[in-house]
Amino acid sequence: MKKYLLDLTVVSNERLSDRHILLKLTSPAALPEMIPGQFVEVRIDHSPSTFLRRPISINYVDRSRNELWLLVALVGDGTRTLAGLGSGDVVNCLLPLGNGFTLPSSSDESLLLVGGGVGIAPLLFFGREAKDRGARVSFLLGARTASELLELDLFKNLGNVYVTTEDGSAGERGFVTNHSVLSREVFTRISMCGPTPMMKAVAAYARKTGTACEASLENMMACGLGACLCCVEKTTEGNLRVCQDGPVFDIQKLLW
Ligand SMILES: Cc1cc2nc3c(=O)[nH]c(=O)nc-3n(C[C@H](O)[C@H](O)[C@H](O)COP(=O)(O)OP(=O)(O)OC[C@H]3O[C@@H](n4cnc5c(N)ncnc54)[C@H](O)[C@@H]3O)c2cc1C
Ligand code: FES
């Protein structure tokens, strides 16, 4: 898939919680084709400590407004610099990168999209595209506490939303793998993104129930283009580059 280096303009930068922003970016030309699960390498300008671009998932593509959305957790200098951007600022982005989630091939599919923390980011765009293909979509979203459950209304427009919080402030208390929906419903495929311990636990559930399952990995990256090998993951097929061969992998390939 062709990659583009684009100067995108900030439409808005909304604070969704103490630790999260939603950046909406646009371009004078139509944004390129993108697949849910792919990501963008964002250049961080005006931050001397941030030399490398930062990988951020495609949160949503709003074709009617020609907008690309990035949902960002503020963890270090790079992401905090993004939090300082305002309307009209320019962000240089390399996109779209990586392979993307498996899109449903028929309306018989019932997908469970599992996200933990900011790992919910790629699931909004995926849910939209899966719903447009006629699949039944459910989301299982986990966070530490209610204020870190983001974009819930948008998820609810696309399917059933099940929630867990570690402190019990919203939804069922505990981790996503404790949610009662897993013992009530059957899904044809699970796609997930989030902390590795969460994904390993969901992968164990999928193996036990014989459910097809794929995981989007967030290994540390540098080039994002398959050249530096700093993102490799050991798999049943040897060392694979998460930026190029992933970030989405069938769990059967992972040594989990
Ligand atoms: C394919 C991919 C998609 C991603 N999508 C998103 C997204 O949609 N939204 C989002 O907020 N973040 C996402 N991330 C994580 C994001 O890239 C990092 O949080 C970011 O690069 C940190 O940059 P920083 O300069 O703010 O922090 P740094 O100063 O570089 O690091 C701050 C802390 O975060 C940790 N950290 C840095 N990178 C990662 C990483 N990749 N995984 C886990 N911990 C990390 C560091 O170890 C350090 O403890 C994604 C990562 C990958 C690989
Ligand atoms: S980040 Fe350089 S090879 Fe993946």
Automatic annotation (TrEMBL):
GO terms for biological process: 'de novo' UMP biosynthetic process. Its cofactor is [2Fe-2S] cluster; FAD. The keyword Isomerase does not apply. Keywords: 2Fe-2S, Electron transport, FAD, Flavoprotein, Iron, Iron-sulfur, Metal-binding, Pyrimidine biosynthesis, Transport. Residues 3-103 form the FAD-binding FR-type domain. Pathway: Pyrimidine metabolism; UMP biosynthesis via de novo pathway; orotate from (S)-dihydroorotate (NAD(+) route): step 1/1. Binds 1 [2Fe-2S] cluster per subunit. It comes from the Bacteria. FAD binds at residues 54-57, 78-79. One of its GO terms (molecular function) is flavin adenine dinucleotide binding. [2Fe-2S] cluster binds at residues 223, 228, 231, 243. Responsible for channeling the electrons from the oxidation of dihydroorotate from the FMN redox center in the PyrD type B subunit to the ultimate electron acceptor NAD(+). Heterotetramer of 2 PyrK and 2 PyrD type B subunits. Belongs to the PyrK family. PANTHER family: DIHYDROOROTATE DEHYDROGENASE B (NAD(+)), ELECTRON TRANSFER SUBUNIT (PTHR43513), DIHYDROOROTATE DEHYDROGENASE B (NAD(+)), ELECTRON TRANSFER SUBUNIT-RELATED (PTHR43513:SF3). This is Dihydroorotate dehydrogenase B (NAD(+)), electron transfer subunit. It comes from Prevotella lacticifex.
